[in-house]
Amino acid sequence: MRNFFLLLVLLLNYSGIAQDNKLDLNYYLPKDVTYNKSIPTPKSIIGHEVGEWHVTHDKLVQYAYALAEASDRITIEDRGKTFEGRPLLLMTITSPANHRNLETIRSQHLSLVESGSSSMNTSSMPVVVYQGFSIHGNEPSGANAGLAVAYYLAAAQGPKIDDLLNNAVILFDPSFNPDGLQRFAHWANTHKAQNINPDPNDREYREAWPGGRTNHYWFDINRDWLPAQLPESRARLNTFHNWYPNVLTDHHEMGTNSSFFFQPGIPSRTHPLTPKKNQELTGMIAKFHARALDQIGSFYFSEENFDDFYYGKGSTFPDINGGVGILFEQASSRGHAQESVNGVLTFQFTIRNQFTTALSTLEAAVSLRTDLLDYQREFYNDARKEAASGGAIVFGDEKDAAKAYHLAEILNRHQIEIHELKDDFTSNGKRYTKGYSYVVPMNQRQHRLIKAMFEKRTKFQDSLFYDISAWSFPLAFNLDYIENASMSRAGAKITDLKMRTPDTPNVSTYAYLMEWHEYYSPKALNMIFAEGLRAKVAMKQFSLEGRDYDYGTILIPIQNQEMNMADLTKFLAKISRETKVPIRGVRTGLAEGIDLGSSNFRAVEQPKVAVIVGDGISAYDAGEIWHLFDTRYNMRLTKLDSKSLGSTDLSRYTDIIIPAGWGNALDKGDAEKLKTWVQNGGSLIAFRSAGRFLERNELMKLNFKSRKDSAVNITFEQRRDYSGAKVIGGAIFEAKLDRSHPIAFGYKNDKIAMFRNTTLMIEPDPNSYNNPIQYSSAPLLSGYISKPNLEDLANTVPFKVSNLGRGQVIYFTDNTNFRAFWYGTNKLLMNAIYFGDKM
Ligand SMILES: [Zn+2]
């Protein structure tokens, strides 16, 4: 009750509609310390009080450098750039004495995770805390609070702060997502009125697509700690491994009507590889947050809604790396002040809760310092014991060096030791060859992380997941692999990982051939087309000059090209060097199987591709496609806004992609326009929920499976869990491939792993040749799916193509481009683009 009255008083004092001119830094700051006048306040540098405006990233950078300049407690480093060129800053904050001794402190701390750490005295070692803010750019209270937190850490004076800074090294990451923070600050500031209007209908609180949550290519960066495909994550991982923090915090926002959440999350949804002690420590830390929030009258909750399962999130990643990850979620004002069920929620109030828990984190970490350090040591000692039985994982693809390399690259970023293959060998009919395969010893420090990345898991304590339930990397890369290989397969340890470079193409006077297996073969073909050269694709397998060529081999004739023979030879050598795709010259067209002049070599046209983006489209799915074209294949992709399709001349595109969405992106008129465009020869490619649009508008006949079942013995309280358990939130399934179909060109195996996060299922065609990709009869490879869903999914098809006039409509129920790390299915989309007219 006392808290209730306190809250009421605080709401009256602070949460009433903000009077910006009265806003004062003291609103946030503790009163039990004095402040050093020589340290600049945020306002003195950025020109406004914390919470008065949404800080833009450039101003945040300005303040960070000013603080580092003024304070001997802070050093600053620029760890790289976002896609939009913003710096990824890190401030290291500790006592001046510790700063002078920082390398020693760091190397001692790092010894804790190595063997032989048992004799180390943790009572004299500082705790390492990594504090990060606003990884979702439109959850800005964290990054804005960071201004005040950094000021406090630089300016506070007295024994309390001295004790804190002597006993902690703080890795302060002021903005986890600079591009998203900037995008949202622009939005909120652009719409701010002098008389702040908390009406939730105001445009200020309704961001335009794609919103500020994501980074440049519209990725959720807080899913990338494990895949590490984005520059922001890569910089953070370097810092992580440079220090192995004991605590890592991740300050977020959630719905406006909520309160404040801190971990632990739902206990039954903690990943089983996370030690129990991790959750105990999280619970001990939580008491500090509770006390601090009690003192300022703020409401909160824990052990609900959020979980610690997927290791790709900032609050979970540390849990498999010897630390404790903590998620904070503050109800969002999503602007400067917004009405909520708890009264008007002001931006300042949200900032203050983040500020308060940032400080309670530090207080907890210092109080639990030796527990955290001892736990970290124990985590790695236990991991080494588990690892002692040895063994190795071997993975690779004898036809695709790039894909194998990119998985090795991820392991490298996680400081997982990898080795070359000692000798080529064959196992279970799969060939493992040097340069195309790697060996991962199980007996190493990162043993538990290796398990988390490679395991297939199909049994779960809970049937609900905040995020995906499976991410097995060799499946995502569609690589051949052996889980229980012997270390005798291992050659030299790799210290300088490089992608294999193929032999320079031998000079030919007749034709060049390029197989389609390599990951970057679409990039190579795009380079060929960009010079106006002609190319054909082999619809059948053949052998020539003692070598077998698979379906989908690209033929580049020498005669009748825009380039003379010498230039063409040089140009193809350059392509091969840059894309790492082998290209071979041949002297004759007389082959076993189809000859090079056969009509089974079909001309391929240079695609001109557009993707529908904007309102109603999933920015994640659209962004993954944009990122794939732009950063992997260097292919131009036009982003067509869903709202302007009606006024766009579509005839300049050969392919249009509709990513998943919410069903309202395109209207009847758009559908008619697309239909005419397909009938005139276009290829329409749709993903996931866009299949409903195809079906509704008779662009394609799709026979979606449906099951009507009613809840039995499910109470009102259980209803959400009941429906939640029917969701396929993200799991991995096996499908059979018809390798002779153009959608499967470049795949060397007749099975493929598919990532699925939808319950849309389509019945197979009665003619088997129309089902080139079909789920197996028992398709679950890894992840959670309910039993009825699994029964339904068996033998359905995730892909369909049908002709319409002179064009075709192509549909995938699954996401082939998931989060940029599903390298294994990217080629399906590229096959649809390059060979769609041959299906
Ligand atoms: Zn968030």
Brief overview:
This protein is α+β, with helices and mostly antiparallel strands and 839 residues long.
Strand content: 15-25%
The poorly predicted ranges are 1-19
Bound heterogens, unique: zinc ion
Number of helices: 23
Counting copies of identical and different chains, the oligomeric state is single chain
What class, by secondary structure content?
alpha+beta
Q: Level of helix content?
A: 25-40%
Strand tally is 35
What does the overall shape look like?
Answer: globular
Strand arrangement in the largest pleated sheet: 2-3-6-4-7-9-8
What do the pLDDT scores average to?
95
Q: For the terminal residues, how far apart are their CA atoms?
A: 70 Å
Sheet with most strands: 7 strands, mixed
Gyration radius, in Å? 28 Å
Written description of the protein model:
- This protein has 839 residues and is an alpha+beta fold.
- The protein contains 23 helices and 35 strands.
- The protein has a 7-stranded mixed beta sheet, sandwiched between helices. A 6-stranded mixed beta sheet has the order 28-27-29-30-35-34, sandwiched between helices. Strands 24-19-23-20-26 form a 5-stranded antiparallel beta sheet, with no helix packed on it.
- Helix 6 packs across helix 11 and helix 16 (521-530) packs antiparallel against helix 17.
- The longest helix is centred in the middle third of the chain and has 21 residues, at 347-367.
- The relative contact order is 0.08.
- The structure holds zinc ion (ZN).
